[in-house]
Write a structure and sequence with these properties.
Layout lengths: L1 E5 L7 H10 L4 E7 L18 E5 L6 E5 L3 H12 L6 E8 L11 H11 L4 E6 L8 H16 L6 E7 L10 E3 L6 E10 L5 E10 L8 H6 L3 E7 L8 H5 L6
Parallel strand pairs: 1-2, 1-5, 2-4, 5-6, 6-7, 8-11
Antiparallel strand pairs: 3-4, 7-11, 9-10
Helix pairs in contact: 1-4, 2-3
Amino acid sequence: MRILLTNDDGIFAPGIQALWRELSEVGEVMVVAPDSERSATSQAITVHHPIRVDQHCFDDPRVCGWRIGGTPTDCVKIAVEALLDQKPDIVVSGINQGPNLGTDVLYSGTVSAAIEGALLGFPAIAVSLTSWKMDDFSVAAKFTSNLVLTAIQKPLPPRTLLNVNVPPLASSELNGVEITRLGAIQYENIFEHRKDPRGRSYYWMGGKQVDSENGAGSDVAAVKQGKISVTPIHFDLTNYKIMPLLEEWNLTT
């Protein structure tokens, strides 16, 4: 089994290192990841300047990967189309430091890398540890490894990925696994106005998350209950329910 592994925290991030080690026990891992953090890049691709590529080996010379000067989506595209001698059997993105829940998946570089894998026709998984501080990725890595084996044995429908969020708990403290829908994440954005040394204005975006209604069955609720959330995602954003309403508008040229 050939596994293409990427992320948005960069090739040196502890999350991808932990997953790299765990997945190496079940298959051939091909790492193609950004050279630095590319969080919140969504589905961005690099079209206005070259994408720098070089190989990087860690302390163990057998542990080498491709370091990409681009976005997570770039990584998957260039891996499949240019770098790898053989196509992967599955694309895995993570382990992200911090959650990727609800509508945040629209901004997430981690999820977008998995989306690109699914768009190219591969089974795909995005996985996140829902903590900005905890640095023990072992539980999330082990779960992902088992999930990869299952996803290969029981293929997903075309153009579908699994978005996984693992609470920062020991294995014995988890309350199981729940198949969930995307919840809602909202922010109170703050744009702080500043001036650079030359007197030119710029803004620094910050903000905080505000409470949203996330009932039973949502990924947000599941994680709060100490459960691993697994959400199937696909790309048809069409709102079919309102198509008859739009037909009633009798739009003309």
